């Protein structure tokens, strides 16, 4: 993946701490000659317990980190970020884009011994992906049927054209298959299998002690020859980030995924030879920090004010001083890690320019009286340290141009309710998580007509017919080159209108023991099956 | 028999309080923005409106608030604590699973604090205003002023990361399956640091109280009488002073048994223990009303029971109280 390498080189050049750079690049080279060792227990930090573990029902890293080792998807991404078959061996789309045929792998069995067939795919697609799975229900909205002429063939039929490359980008996350025979009777959401998952993957579920740990053991009948290497994976529930860092140091944990430690602990462990701290292997989990504007406030419905706010904030300064090597300047809703869709930085940007910000605000007619022009309520999401720091930075930057910002903090449920349902905010800030294709995760932030209450969607009170049309055209465009051009157009349009500003780009940070081999080798490694992961002595 | 009737009366008197507490918590949680589906959406990273609606129905949130409250109380009357949204299990089962670590941690650290508080309190009172007193009081103040999460983390850094004497967290070793006495020892070794962390803060309070009440009792007339009788100093302290000085300590234990449950959220998180404090915290964040109310219910019951035991202890320590009651 060229961009990843480029990015590492860029980081290398910029790094003040050479130790981190050495850790990022060296291990692959130094240990390339070793022969894989069988055996060993891999201990994983599990920060937030979920309500269930089946990735066919819930698309989130907290589920993939466990369920992704036990259940498998039709397609995953290879080292270059290109789709590679897992349970599907090959695929083909009809020219009209309305049917997509998957040839499934032969000789694969579920952990309970029953064979895996196209009936499982049909059942999962129609009952889970289309009806329950978050993002899946949007992706598969126009899926009408899945035909199964034989056990190794599944033909997806769509009412409207489904771009093959969209489906293939989405299926690594939204294409996990569950066993029909375990789910066909009763309420899927209440099925006890959800907490004791059964799959086709390299690891078999053993035990889940809520609040303590989850254990999965090696699947001796796994379909890939000689895999997996590990005997066991243990996920330890540790909610306190600082305690998790201490457990890494005590050798009780091997891996803390998805920026699970505090920024300062990650920087500190990065200088320790026993650990590798890197963003590699998380390119598929890019996110951008946002500033979401509520157009119901008359000040914010003025484009000049939104632009002034963007110009008033010194983003590079913030990144250098608070986020360090783990973030970079963002250029819009499609992050630079997205090789297929990133339009380049040549779209409207809002570099730090305080004088310009002040001029824009004056021009918009909001004169400073006693130093203050108007006051805004800013709601930061509670997901990460960076958001909290960022909201304070925004507050201080805006006070310098005469906008008073009051920060209102909520927990997760409260934040979503207040911003996306009650619209009780002026500015909101959180993460936009990019899911490898703008149609899956990103365009809902801008497309008008989102139902009230749907989190991470356009609830800004903003509507733009041109943007809507670009989004709709791109979603059903089957020619990949034309799709890419349409999304470049989309980024230009939304960066001009600025209903949401996405000025920082981040990739999750992995902290992993230097003994691990074959790790971080795909763009969504933390979520993948780890069939080739092994531990050196 | 007298004990039973006393227990009955106490319980009957607590029931209205208990119901008021439950209704209060229920209404308080309604004021917090967002419900358990919003919390689930936050955890999942998104979902469409139709999914949210289906989930609200699934969790019974499509009913009005009074109907939900009525439902809950009606279930409670039949001793049914309801179903946990985050655990997908009956609340009673969830709480029962979490109760042993909490009670273990609570009893261990309270006993630790009580015992050493007593010993140090007596030593400090005997050497009042001399160096043992100054040393003990200063240490007590330091323990009291230090936040427990910091204490816990430092304990992990020193004893688990550098010295590697004790495990850094968890309730028991997952790698090896142990039985009998070995399992007991394993759990004990996991509980040493959390017990100390939680206990040290309370220790400070106990030793201050013990010191003060020793000093007070030492000045009373009957102590002078005891000394005049020619009793030796050890006898005076253990038989006459200690027994009377213990009353405030026992009161304190009754009061703190309740706070210990809440206070252990921090310690449980730092040491990754599966206790009630963490469960309560998680239920609030996840807006899991049934579980939270269940915990409030069980905690309130625990407090009532502990206070009842404290009353019985009073009577043993000071027969005058029993005679009056």
TrEMBL record, chain A:
GO terms for molecular function: peptide transmembrane transporter activity. Residues 83-449 form the Solute-binding protein family domain. It is found in: Periplasm. It holds the Pfam family SBP_bac_5. Belongs to the bacterial solute-binding protein 5 family. Transmembrane segments: none annotated. Coiled coil: none annotated. GO terms for cellular component: ATP-binding cassette (ABC) transporter complex; outer membrane-bounded periplasmic space. This is Peptide ABC transporter substrate-binding protein. InterPro entries: Peptide/Ni-bd, SBP_5, SBP_5_dom. Keywords: Signal. The keyword Lyase does not apply. GO terms for biological process: peptide transport.
TrEMBL record, chain B:
One of its GO terms (biological process) is transmembrane transport. Residues 99-314 form the ABC transmembrane type-1 domain. It is a multi-pass membrane protein. GO terms for cellular component: plasma membrane. Gene3D superfamilies: MetI-like. It is found in: Cell membrane. The chain crosses the membrane at residues 12-32, 103-123, 135-163, 187-207, 245-271, 291-314. Keywords: Cell membrane, Membrane, Transmembrane, Transmembrane helix, Transport. Coiled coil: none annotated. The keyword Transcription regulation does not apply. Belongs to the binding-protein-dependent transport system permease family. This is ABC transporter permease. It comes from Bradyrhizobium macuxiense.
């Amino acid at each position: 993946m060229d961009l990843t390498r480029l990015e590492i080189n860029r980081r290398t050049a910029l790094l003040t701490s050479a130790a981190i750079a050495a850790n990022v690049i060296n291990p692959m080279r130094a240990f390339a000659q070793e022969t894989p060792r069988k055996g060993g227990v891999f201990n994983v930090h599990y920060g937030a317990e979920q309500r269930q573990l089946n990735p066919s029902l819930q698309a989130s890293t907290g589920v993939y980190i466990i369920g992704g080792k036990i259940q498998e998807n039709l397609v995953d991404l290879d080292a270059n970020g290109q789709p590679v078959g897992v349970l599907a061996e090959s695929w083909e789309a009809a020219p009209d884009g309305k049917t997509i045929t998957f040839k499934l792998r032969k000789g694969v069995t579920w952990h309970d011994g029953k064979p895996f067939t196209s009936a499982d795919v049909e059942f999962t697609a129609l009952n889970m992906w289309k009806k329950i799975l978050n993002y899946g229900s949007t992706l598969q909205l126009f899926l009408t049927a899945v035909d199964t002429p034989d056990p190794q063939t599944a033909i997806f039929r769509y009412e409207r054209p489904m771009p093959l490359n969209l489906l293939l980008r989405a299926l690594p996350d939204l294409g996990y298959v569950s066993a029909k025979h375990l789910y066909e009777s009763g309420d899927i959401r209440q099925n006890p299998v959800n907490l004791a998952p059964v799959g086709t993957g390299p690891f078999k579920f053993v035990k889940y002690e809520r609040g303590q740990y989850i254990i999965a053991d090696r699947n001796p009948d796994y379909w890939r020859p000689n895999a997996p290497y590990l005997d066991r994976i243990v996920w330890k529930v540790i909610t306190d980030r600082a305690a998790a860092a201490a457990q890494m140091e005590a050798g009780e944990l091997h891996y803390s995924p998805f920026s699970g430690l505090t920024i300062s602990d990650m920087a500190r462990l990065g200088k320790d030879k026993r650990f590798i701290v890197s963003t590699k292997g998380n390119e598929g989990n890019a996110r951008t920090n946002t500033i979401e504007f509520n157009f119901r406030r008359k000040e914010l419905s003025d484009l000049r004010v939104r632009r002034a706010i963007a110009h008033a904030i010194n983003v590079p300064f913030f990144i250098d001083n608070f986020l360090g090597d783990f973030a970079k300047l963002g250029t819009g809703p499609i992050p630079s890690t997205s090789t297929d869709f990133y339009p380049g930085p040549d779209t409207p940007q809002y570099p730090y320019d305080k004088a310009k910000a002040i001029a824009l605000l004056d021009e918009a007619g909001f004169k400073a009286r006693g130093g203050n022009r108007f006051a805004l309520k800013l709601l930061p999401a509670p997901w990460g340290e960076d958001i909290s720091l960022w909201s304070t930075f925004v507050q201080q930057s805006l006070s310098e141009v005469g906008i008073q910002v009051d920060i209102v903090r909520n927990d997760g449920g409260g934040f979503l309710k207040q911003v996306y349902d009650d619209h009780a905010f002026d500015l909101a800030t959180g993460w936009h998580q990019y899911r490898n294709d703008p149609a899956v995760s990103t365009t809902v932030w801008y497309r008008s007509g989102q139902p009230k209450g749907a989190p991470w969607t356009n609830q800004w009170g903003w509507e733009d017919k041109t943007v809507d049309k670009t989004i709709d055209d791109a979603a059903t465009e089957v020619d990949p080159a034309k799709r890419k051009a349409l999304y470049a157009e989309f980024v230009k349009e939304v960066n001009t209108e600025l209903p949401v500003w996405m000025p920082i780009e981040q990739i999750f940070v992995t902290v992993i023991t230097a003994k691990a081999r074959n790790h971080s080798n795909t763009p969504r490694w933390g979520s993948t099956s780890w069939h080739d992961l092994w531990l050196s002595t | 028999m007298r004990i039973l009737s006393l227990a009955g009366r106490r319980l009957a008197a607590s029931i209205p309080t208990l119901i008021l507490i439950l209704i209060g918590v229920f209404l308080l949680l309604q004021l917090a923005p967002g419900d358990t589906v919003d919390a689930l959406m936050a955890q999942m990273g998104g979902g469409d409106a139709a999914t949210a609606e289906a989930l609200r129905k699934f969790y019974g949130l499509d009913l009005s608030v009074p109907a939900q409250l009525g439902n809950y109380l009606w279930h409670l009357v039949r001793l049914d604590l309801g179903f946990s949204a985050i655990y997908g299990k009956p609340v009673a089962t969830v709480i029962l699973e979490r109760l042993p670590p909490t009670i273990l941690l609570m009893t261990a650290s309270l006993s630790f604090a009580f015992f050493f508080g007593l010993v140090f309190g007596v030593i400090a009172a005997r050497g009042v205003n001399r160096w043992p007193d100054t040393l003990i009081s200063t240490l007590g103040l330091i323990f009291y002023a230090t936040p427990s999460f910091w204490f816990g983390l430092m304990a992990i850094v020193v004893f688990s990361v550098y010295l590697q004497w004790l495990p850094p967290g968890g309730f028991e070793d997952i790698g090896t399956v142990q039985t009998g006495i070995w399992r007991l020892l394993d759990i004990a070794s996991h509980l040493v640091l959390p017990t100390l962390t939680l206990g040290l803060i309370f220790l400070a309070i106990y030793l201050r109280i013990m010191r003060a009440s020793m000093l007070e009792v030492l000045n009373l007339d009957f102590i002078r009488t005891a000394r005049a009788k020619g009793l030796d100093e050890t006898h005076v302290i253990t038989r006459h002073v200690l027994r009377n000085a213990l009353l405030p300590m026992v009161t304190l234990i009754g009061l703190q048994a309740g706070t210990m449950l809440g206070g252990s959220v921090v310690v449980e998180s730092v040491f990754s223990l599966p206790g009630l404090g963490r469960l309560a915290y998680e239920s609030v964040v996840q807006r899991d009303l049934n579980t939270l109310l269940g915990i409030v219910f069980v905690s309130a019951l625990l407090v009532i029971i502990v206070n009842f035991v404290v009353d019985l202890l009073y009577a043993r320590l000071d027969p005058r109280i029993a005679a009056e009651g």
